[in-house]
Design brief:
The chain is of the alpha/beta class. Among the domains are: 65 residues, no CATH class; 28 residues, no CATH class; 93 residues, no CATH class. Helices cover 35% and strands 18% of the residues. The chain has 23 helices and 27 strands. Strands 3-22-4-21-20-5-8-10-9-19 form a 10-stranded mixed sheet, sandwiched between helices. Strands 23-24-25-26-27 form a 5-stranded mixed sheet, covered by helices on one side. Strands 14-15-17-16 form a 4-stranded antiparallel sheet. Helix 16 packs across helix 17.
């Protein structure tokens, strides 16, 4: 059996899914539109005059999506940290081709995608041909335009998309469409994508996401208030960005994801309450008196006269004063009381939440513990039935007023509610200038790590090995934030980050320090964060036997295998030239390790796959994947290797066809022998 050296064919994938759902819509392996209309009835519309998003170049954008890639990812061991045990991935390369290359290995496996694409302000640059009439060959040539050292040049792909351009919005939409489509494929059924955008393309992006993800899968539009209006605004000065969030399947996403965040100041509030509670029943001078005494240099006898026993009421008064000065969110500031046990709490109404009247069991009155009289009932009844109200009473979670004229409320303890629902408006105006200075690195407009960390924690779980993908990695904030998330909650999230090898401005400080591309600079940031984290961990007692963390670095590169170019054959001579090239399908300069990782990727294995090198001698090598799922033979095939393969018993054995030296009889015998031992045999 031969392997296909291409990425997932998007068209074939969609057709196979449609066949599973509506097999009757196909005739002779083609979609029968009339039959499809008959099956779906009124649910299908053929009217061209309908609400839809369209632009110049949309059809071409879909064609770009449908072209599989033969390119692959080569390991960059020098750019990695702790390769053997690493669970994180950084990829240097053009993100459209990388997304195509990842389809087989990561289809339906990513929990959360967070991207910060170009905002199309008229001054930024992005990758997509601005001439939609160009041929495929011209486009592919443009993808290959690099300088002598292999870095992508602005003259090739990084084209300013000026507002004067007649296809200003079209170019941006054509760039985004195939990438978002491929990104959706990579999401798990309960996964979601989060996209940062500003006012320039927010409206268009919403419509595009509705088309790709379906408007029913919109989770929400978050407003990120940065607290600092743009100083160069010609009209309304925007001080916010939008963050659009869509799920692959909203129902499954919401059933599996809490969408909550840790209350930022909760720990600090509990600590302050604990400090104040220790003063209960002690004799001391109130803090306000001490402050006035010091500020106005008053006589000491005033302090002596002000001494008093601290009551719970006094402690609550001081706690309330402190709370008001902290600038807390509404959800935090509501926890402004300390009970007799030192617990911080808030009071919440227990009234029936709906307009419809509650059942009779929800109208049983509560008796005041002091006056022994019934307290007022909510107009539409209690929120809970009698049995639940009794449980709350027994646990001391119902608070009565001074007498029976006050309606009782429920007590919520802060220590039991350390998280809050993710709100639609997020306030964060900080920067990472100090953090990046400590790393001795600089980036243009990096997203803040702490803010990104809070979003990742809201959309992922600590212990589910969730994969976080960012294919516009830029400064590497997402990777950094994933590391910080795991550090704070001992989680095992993993990241995959993709960044172009775009050249750095030669006048910049980073270029003068020896960094040539943004991808190189981003890699160095991730390296330094991992190195610092591992050094910090090494100083602690390692009770859980935790291994140092790290990442594997890969580079997008051409396939190690020769590609049949039927489009270049126009004569018998050219046909013979193509045939002669394929006496050996491997390119002459291909290293075995690069061939191995291309086969790993195109076999659908993850880039974190652990591979054992089994050596019979220096030239007889078998590469064995974890769990004996696959074995590869790339350098030499001998009877000894065949015997070892049977002993190792992998599920699949992949071998280069050229190792049989055109001996079809030997190849057939090998296949039969392996099949007899339950091993699937593939050649390439």
């Amino acid at each position: 059996m031969s392997m296909d050296g291409k990425s997932l064919n998007i068209t074939e994938d969609l057709i196979s899914k449609l066949k599973e759902i509506i097999p009757g819509a196909f005739t002779e392996d083609k979609i029968n539109v009339e039959q499809l209309k008959q099956v779906l009835g009124e649910s299908i519309s053929t009217d061209t005059d309908r609400y839809q998003l369209t632009w110049a170049g949309k059809n071409e954008a879909y064609k770009v999506l449908q072209i599989p890639t033969t390119e692959t990812l080569a390991p960059n061991f020098n750019g990695s940290v702790n390769w053997d045990d690493a669970e994180n991935i950084f990829i240097e390369g053009e993100n459209l081709k990388v997304l195509k290359a990842l389809q087989k290995s990561y289809y339906g496996k990513v929990k959360f995608i967070s991207i910060d694409p170009p905002y199309n302000t008229g001054s930024d640059s992005f990758i997509y041909p601005d001439n939609f009439s160009e041929t495929k060959e011209e486009y592919l040539k443009k993808l290959g335009e690099k300088d002598e050292e292999g870095y992508m040049t602005r003259e090739g792909l990084f084209r300013p998309n000026r507002k004067e351009n007649g296809q200003f919005h079209s170019n941006w939409l054509s760039m985004m469409l195939p990438r978002l489509f491929l990104a959706r494929n990579l999401l798990k059924e309960d996964g979601a994508i989060l996209i940062h955008i500003d006012e320039h393309e927010q409206a268009n992006l919403s419509l595009l996401l509705n088309e790709i993800f379906g408007e029913d899968n919109l989770i929400g539009n978050i407003i990120w208030d940065k607290g600092n209006p743009k100083g160069d605004a010609m009209g309304i000065a925007y001080q916010h960005e939008s963050i659009l969030v869509y799920a692959k399947n909203k129902e499954k996403f919401l059933s599996e994801t809490d969408l909550s965040r840790k209350k930022k100041n909760a720990e600090r509030m509990l600590k302050k309450a604990s400090e104040l509670y220790k003063l209960l029943n002690t004799i001391d001078i109130p803090a306000e008196v001490k402050k006035v005494h010091k500020e106005f240099n008053l006589p000491d006898e005033i302090l002596t006269k002000a001494k008093r026993k601290f009551t719970l009421e006094e402690i609550n008064s001081q706690f309330n004063t402190w709370i008001k000065k902290q600038g807390l969110s509404g959800g935090e500031a509501a926890y402004n009381k300390i009970d007799e046990n030192g617990n911080v709490y808030r009071l919440v109404s227990m009234a029936w939440p709906n307009k419809k009247k509650a059942p009779d069991d929800y109208f049983v009155p509560l008796i005041h513990p002091v006056t022994n009289k019934a307290c007022p009932l909510p107009q539409r009844g209690w929120r809970f039935p009698t049995s639940t109200m009794k449980e709350l009473l027994d646990k001391g979670e119902i608070v009565f007023g001074a007498d029976h004229t006050v309606q009782p409320q429920r007590k919520y303890l802060l220590k039991e509610n350390m998280s809050e629902n993710l709100p639609s408006i997020l306030f964060y105006g900080g920067s990472d200038d100090s953090l990046l200075r400590n790393l001795d690195l600089e980036f243009e407009n990096p997203k803040p790590v702490e803010f990104t960390k809070s979003l990742i924690q809201a959309f992922t779980k600590p212990y589910s090995s969730d994969i976080v993908l960012d294919f516009f990695a830029g400064s590497g904030t997402t990777a950094h934030a994933v590391i910080e998330c795991n550090k704070s909650d001992n989680g095992n999230r993993r990241f995959i980050c993709v960044q172009l090898p775009e050249k750095i401005d030669e006048d910049s400080d980073m270029f003068k320090k020896g960094f040539v591309s943004i991808a190189e600079l981003t890699t160095e940031r991730i390296k330094r964060v991992f190195t610092n984290s591992n050094a910090s961990q090494a100083q602690k007692l390692n009770f859980n036997n935790k291994k140092p963390i790290g990442f594997r670095s890969f580079v997008l590169t051409a396939s190690n295998f020769k590609i049949w170019r039927g489009d270049m054959i126009s004569s018998e001579e050219e046909l013979l030239n193509q045939i002669s090239m394929f006496n050996d399908s491997i390119k002459s300069n291909s290293a075995s390790i690069n061939i191995l990782w291309e086969l790993v990727l195109k076999s659908g294995l993850p880039l974190t796959e652990k591979i054992e090198k089994v050596e019979l001698d220096k030239s007889e090598i078998i590469y064995l994947t974890e769990g004996h799922r696959m074995a590869f033979c790339l350098d030499k095939f001998t009877p000894e290797i065949q015997a070892k393969i049977i002993e190792l018993a992998p599920s699949v054995f992949i071998c280069l066809d050229s190792l049989f030296n055109k001996d079809d009889r030997n190849k057939t015998n090998t296949q039969l022998k392996l099949q007899d031992n339950g091993i699937e045999f593939k050649t390439l």
